[in-house]
Automatic annotation (TrEMBL):
Transmembrane segments: none annotated. Residues 814-996 form the Gylcosyl hydrolase 115 C-terminal domain. Keywords: Hydrolase, Signal. It holds the Pfam family GH115_C. The keyword tRNA-binding does not apply. This is Gylcosyl hydrolase 115 C-terminal domain-containing protein. The keyword Oxidoreductase does not apply. Residues 1-21 form the signal peptide. PANTHER family: GYLCOSYL HYDROLASE 115 C-TERMINAL DOMAIN-CONTAINING PROTEIN (PTHR37842:SF2), PTHR37842. InterPro entries: GH115 (IPR031924), GH115_C (IPR041437), GH115_sf (IPR042301), Hex-like_dom2 (IPR029018).
Length: 1000
């Protein structure tokens, strides 16, 4: 078994306050003298600030007072004061070191030790201070090292008071308490792990934009662009970002221009304390191409129009100069496409040089290297870097993912010494190849953790920015991303569930056990949606005939829906809207889409089998299609239409990468309900075939007519333990049937039934009653289905049945071949062998089926790799009874997460597979790609991001039936293995691979 590391779990889910990953310093009961009252006996402690503090601190302090009122119903008095006027009382005092003269006076007066926070970016401390000022006996003091340090100190308390960062954005109710206390020892936090932690509102049409137009404008947007994203919208967003302890924003840019849509946007960001940037394709703080289209002179082509483009950028720089900004350098072609083909590194180098000159000019007298700047190595720009282009040392290198959550590059050893450092641009939402994904949450937190923890390991911690699309469907993921960047030491592979559980407690006031259920629901929701994004699903994604795959997928979704529904129904009405938005809608809406597509697949297949139940599935599709719209409508009508339009995103009927202009129902077929199929009343369809009997069918045998009767086979270690044969109606005439066999060891359940238009199908399971009653090897039987219908001749169809009893060698422990494969979840090892302190370690809830296993720590072994056969290994004991056509050959398919060669070209991802003492075979499984490109296996509808897996196939020769050991050897870190399948000749096509084999 995999040994999970025991990490300290920091999440204190105290009965007193529920907050996520924070030190706890809030209580709701009057307790000992170690607590300082915020509100007690109906009275609120007054709050004092200094008028020379940051306006953003003043504003957040007002939120803080409102939050106290939200919890207690009592609003504290809040006012400015000075050290000389404040002469009595026991107040709460808030302020920023070096900015608030009040705080500085307290520090001087009391020698309050602020060494832990002083000079630390965004740090804060809060505690009881005795005699802070003459006449003032004690005060609870919240001190920030800088503007946002103070703001985060306030919001940290608010969250513990019970005000969710999402109180407005997801209608999370605040639990009322009449008494509110903070502990004298208070709460504090040092500098966050990541300096700039941000989100990118992107591709915000149709949902967010249409919603914002209705809620924040009177129908007319910006005079320049028509954009609805004005300061009323942004005030809500800035507050959310700060409550989530983020500090950075790339604003909506699809049809908007932040700086001009509303002249208050940019100053308001600064007032709040949010650092503004612009996306990878919009240099120098201008919304490009929108602003260039409006104000630019000439073409957006630096080779012919540099002077005018410079003027355009100077304008953006001058506009941003008064405010806190993180500038994006470089240039892409208008509309987020590569610069023209003739352009080259030299040109881009020139562009960056010219941009630096613009800084020198506009920030006259300021050292250019102190102006925060980044260079986004997105798509082809990464290629320019790989080809040798460099920017000045102080510029942050912003590495990007592949738009699908797989980071393309992390800083190598030599790159980690750059003073500017590095960051990561990540995606929860995307418009582009192979298909958009922008409808609903599809990102596993475990995957975010897995990728972003490499960023922590490799010091890409200057900037993290995540594309959140319309923001709304990705609330939890956004919070996790920002929380992990805020304090990476809190979170590890084993406590992500506790993040979600604490989140559920905070949002829905749930008991710990119900919160754990929510964590499971959220984990499964994102796991199922991450297997293949809904936009990429088709009616035949999951096998309709093999491994009962489609049936299991439907059953999984239905179980999830039921779990969510029963929780939803149990909630008080004030919690339901939040639960609906954050959990229930995505679960039920995703289940609906999956069920609809599978029902369409079954419908299409059954039509070809002349089964009258075809029509039931057609009806199901029609009904699920309207349910899809009903769920959208339910969201839109929630809370008197507060979220109208927010689920406008189309998601059904994609024909190419771009979204369809309307949802379209998957194609369905119908049979004439009153006409009988040519061969008679009964249709027989055994498991594992697309064909039906009697009569002709193209899938029966090669020529499609005069084919033999069907047959099924079952071996003693099939994980299913039985086979089924469907008995279906071929028309409107009711009939009864019996199923009998000529073998006493064969059991048929049920062995008879009645079929009619209202009950047109019966599944009959065939199993072996007692394997010891059949001899070793193959035993055959014949199952006879006989149908009796009024005024029709009796109909008979036979199905051959072969039972194969395989004997496991005595004493063997491990996985046993069944159905011609050995399928193993990677975490289910027989042995897990560490080398040099590096161990394959499980990432729970990761990937498509169970979990992922990856070498840990990633920079262990001094960051060096291993040669095949020398490193840490996973060992799996298995027994096989067959090889492919008796040849002695088997193939091993290792299901590996679709990571990229992010450790640099000289360290491509690799691992090795070995069986027994056959030579280990090394796989460099991510093909190399031209600089700035992705490998071809990445793309397309059958590429590894669409499939969310890389299948690495390794053939082995010269294997006898018997007990063996399969080993997976570490070569490089950051390889995540999910599952291993050994084909001994029986593998069938499916999406997720065969289910796990029997283990003895
Ligand atoms: C404190 O002073 C600042 C600066 O003059 C002002 O903006 C703010 O509204 C004042 N706060 C209160 C609570 O009066």
């Amino acid at each position: 078994m995999i040994i999970r590391r025991t990490f300290a779990v920091y999440v204190a889910v105290a009965a007193s306050a529920v907050a996520i990953g924070q030190d706890s310093c809030v209580a709701f009961q009057s307790s000992s003298s170690s607590a300082f009252p915020v509100v007690t006996r109906g009275k609120a402690t007054p709050i004092f600030l200094s008028k020379d503090d940051w306006p953003g601190v003043q504003r957040a302090a007002n939120d803080f007072a409102l939050d106290i009122q939200r919890v207690t119903g009592v609003k504290p008095a809040i006012s400015n004061t000075t050290a000389s006027t404040l002469k009595s009382g026991t107040p709460i005092i808030i302020g920023t070191l070096g900015k608030s003269s009040l705080i500085d006076a307290i520090v001087n007066n009391t020698k309050l030790d602020v060494t832990g926070v002083q000079g630390q970016w965004e740090a804060f401390t809060a505690k009881l201070v005795n005699n802070p000022l003459p006449g003032v006996s004690r005060a609870y003091v919240i001190v920030g090292a800088d503007k946002r340090g103070t703001i985060f100190g306030l919001y940290d308390h608010s969250e513990q008071f019970g005000v969710s960062p999402w109180y407005w954005w997801a209608d999370v109710p605040t639990t009322r308490h009449s008494e509110l206390f903070v502990s004298n020892s208070g709460c504090s936090h040092g500098s966050p792990t990541v300096k700039y932690r941000g989100i990118f509102i992107n591709d915000e049409q149709p949902a967010l934009q249409s919603w914002a137009a209705e809620k924040f404008t009177n129908g007319t947007g910006s005079p320049w662009t028509g954009s609805p994203f004005n300061n009323l919208f942004y005030a809500k967003l800035f507050e959310l970002i700060l409550r989530l302890k983020g500090n950075y924003l790339w604003p909506a840019m699809w049809g908007s221009a932040f700086g001009i849509d509303d002249p208050f946007n940019q100053p308001l960001a600064d007032l709040f304390g949010v650092v503004m940037g612009t996306s990878h394709q919009e240099p120098m703080m201008r919304s490009t191409p929108n602003e260039f289209n409006l104000f630019g002179v000439g073409k957006y082509d630096y080779t012919t129009n540099a002077e005018n483009i410079q003027k355009y950028w100077i304008n953006g720089t001058e506009r941003a100069k008064p405010y806190e900004s993180l500038y994006t350098l470089g240039m892409r072609g208008a509309g987020d496409i590569p610069l023209s083909e003739e352009t080259n590194i030299q040109l881009l180098q020139q562009i960056v040089d010219d941009q630096r000159k613009i800084f020198a000019e506009v920030y006259n007298g300021t050292d250019v290297t102190t102006i925060p700047q980044l260079w986004a190595l997105y798509k082809e720009v990464e290629g320019y870097y790989d080809d040798g282009m460099r920017v000045p040392e102080d510029v942050i290198l912003l590495w990007a993912d592949d738009n699908w959550g797989n980071v393309r590059r992390f800083p190598t050893d030599s790159e980690r010494t750059r003073s500017g450092g590095a960051g990561v641009y990540y995606h929860f939402d995307y418009v582009g190849d192979p298909r958009n994904y922008k409808w609903i949450t599809t990102t596993q937190l475990s995957k975010v953790y897995e990728q972003m923890s490499i960023a922590v390991d490799r010091n890409a911690t200057k900037v993290w920015i995540v594309n959140v699309g319309d923001l709304k469907p990705y609330e939890r993921e956004t919070e996790f991303f920002l929380s992990y960047g805020w304090n990476a030491t809190r979170w590890n592979a084993n406590n992500i569930d506790s993040f979600v559980a604490s989140w559920a407690q905070r949002e829905f006031s749930l008991s710990p056990s119900k919160a754990a259920t929510v964590a499971q629901i959220a984990g499964n929701l994102t796991r199922f949606n991450a297997r293949r994004k809904p936009e990429l699903l088709t009616p035949t994604t999951y096998s309709l005939t093999d491994y009962r795959e489609a049936d299991n997928i439907q059953a999984e979704w239905n179980r999830l829906s039921q779990a969510s529904t029963s929780l939803y129904n149990s909630l008080p009405s004030n919690v339901k809207p939040a639960f609906f938005q954050l959990i229930h809608h995505p679960v039920v809406a995703s289940a609906t889409v999956n069920n609809m597509l599978i029902a369409a697949g079954i419908n299409n297949l059954r039509a070809s089998q002349a089964r009258i139940s075809t029509n039931n599935f057609a009806d199901q599709v029609v009904s699920l299609f309207s349910q899809d719209f009903d769920l959208e409508t339910q969201y839109h009508t929630l809370l008197d239409g507060k979220w109208n339009h927010i689920m406008d995103q189309t998601h059904l009927g994609y024909g190419y990468w771009q979204q369809p202009m309307a949802n379209t129902m998957p194609a369905i077929n119908r049979l004439p309900p009153k006409k009988q199929a040519l061969p008679g009343v009964m249709r027989i369809v055994p498991e594992g075939t697309k064909a039906a009997w009697p009569g002709d069918n193209v899938n029966q045998c090669a020529q499609g007519y005069n084919c033999p009767p069907p047959s099924v086979a079952l071996d003693s270690h099939s994980p299913f333990g039985n086979r089924f044969i469907d008995v279906g109606a071929g028309g409107p005439v009711p009939f009864t049937f019996t199923a009998t066999s000529n073998a006493s060891w064969l059991q048929l359940t049920p062995s008879s039934g009645s079929i009619s238009p209202s009950s047109p199908e019966q599944r009959v399971f065939a199993s072996v009653k007692d394997w010891s009653a059949v001899g070793a090897g193959n035993s055959s039987a014949v199952i006879t289905f006989k149908a009796v219908a009024k005024n029709q001749p009796t109909m008979t169809v036979t199905v051959g049945f072969t039972a194969t009893r395989n004997n496991v060698p005595s004493g063997f422990k491990g996985f046993v071949e069944g159905d011609g494969v050995v399928s193993i979840e990677a975490a289910h090892t027989s042995r897990n062998i560490s080398v040099s302190g590096v161990t394959w370690t499980e990432i729970p809830n990761y990937g498509r089926t169970l979990s992922g296993v990856t070498p840990w720590p990633r920079l262990g072994n001094n960051g060096a790799n291993f040669t095949a056969g020398s490193g840490p290994s996973l060992e799996y004991d298995f027994v096989n009874f067959n090889t492919i056509q008796g040849s002695g050959n088997v193939t091993v398919t290792t299901f590996v997460s679709p990571s990229l060669n992010a450790n640099g070209a000289d360290r491509p991802l690799a691992f090795a597979v070995q069986i027994d003492s056959l030579p280990p075979q090394t796989s460099y499984f991510i093909p190399s790609a031209a600089p700035g490109q992705l490998p071809s296996a990445w793309s397309g509808l059958d590429g590894f991001v669409a499939n969310s897996i890389v299948s690495v196939v390794t053939p082995f020769q010269g294997l006898q039936p018997g007990a063996h050991t399969l080993k997976i050897w570490m070569i490089e870190p950051a390889v995540v293995i999910q599952k291993v399948v050994i084909n001994t000749g029986g593998i069938r096509a499916s999406y997720l691979g065969p289910p796990e084999s029997v283990r003895v």
